[in-house]
Amino acid sequence: MAPRYAQRFEKIKKLMGEKELDILFVVNRENLIYFTGLTQIECLAIIIPNEGEPIAVTLWLDADYVERESGIKTFGYFFPRETLGSKVVEVIKSMGYISPRIGFERYFVDYALYDALRQAFPEKNFVGAGELFYRVRAVKEPEEVEKIRKAAMALCKGMDAAVRAVKPGVSELDVLAEAEYAMLKAGSGGSPFRPHIISGERTLLSHPCASHKKIKEGEVVVIHIGATYEGYCAKMCRTVAVGKISPEREKTYYLLLEAQKRAIDTLRPGVKSSEVDAAAREVIKKAGYEKYYLDVVGYGVGLRQSEFYPIIGKNRGDIIEAGMVVDLLLPTLYNKDIGGPRITDVIYVGEEKNEILTDYPNDLFRV
User: Fold this and answer.
1) Among 177, 169, 216, which Cα is nearest to 195's?
2) Residue pLDDT, tens place only, 110-123
3) How many domains does the chain have?
4) For residue 10, what are the contacts with CB-CB under 8 A and spacing of at least 6?
5) Among the three residues 103, 137, 171, which one is the final residue of a domain in this structure?
6) Which of 36, 87, 159, 355 could form a disulfide with 70 if both were Cys (CB 3.0 to 4.6 A apart)?
7) pLDDT digits (tens, 9 = 90+) for 105-163
8) 116 neighbors 83 (Cβ within 8 angstroms)
9) Same domain, residue pair 87 and 158
10) Number of other residues whose CB lies within 10 A of the CB of residue 361
11) DSSP label at 19?
């Protein structure tokens, strides 16, 4: 096993003690990439015991590949007479466990797998342990930062293509097509989320995505897109004014831009995430718009576009550390008369200074 992956297992084992876990069970794609370095994976689980070496379970066709590439001892199962669940149970029992306390990720454990485990072991000993994974992944190694940086470089190509494609009569999906093609040509492995190319009233939706809607004169267009490189993500949001937009919406954009700048200036090792939020929030509050503003303005970024540690928000106690990568600041002002514009960037937190990895102009674009 490569030293960096061995270190990652040791880091998570130390956190397992907080929840008195015997086993940490891994099937989430992002966590599998983190612990193995493999992106060409399906039907794979990793069992991390509190003592001893981790064990992988996968289809017998891929077992040699997984063991060779990851350095983790791997058992194969023969589908359909065996399943991932039945083989995992067999392996855990072979490790000597009768009633283990098993930690699970927050998402992505399918029912058949969970059911196989609860049929074999007491369900009362199952524990949600998703936050452990987010915490161990929060501080990035230099190699991880470089992958995010490469994703960001491809992303900038996509943003440039998207901005140039915006004009009246063009659909949101037309703009997205140009952005996606440019990012793939630049080396992106694909989008980490449903891209948001949204215009007009749709800019106030909470989780919108590109549609067949035609862009109109006088509208704001929000471009929120992402790229990946070997599993690692970057994302960025910019706003385009199509023709003449209302002075109120223009003011909103520059208010958010100032709030983002204050947040980035505050983002440094040792501060609480609530302090970063407060720096941005003060700008909005002073302008009299806090009631239209959200309580979360950023997340960690890495193998997911939105990691759940740290979360940059009101009353959050997460401590910012050097080596973290976060995004700031997506919310708009949620008022139909002034809202819509948005901006966000991905920032690397350095020991001495920050680096904005999404190095792309942030003025209000006009077409």
Assistant:
1) 177
2) 899 999 999 999 99
3) 2
4) none
5) 137
6) 36
7) 977 788 999 999 999 999 999 999 999 999 999 999 999 999 999 999 999 999 999 99
8) yes
9) no
10) 11
11) G
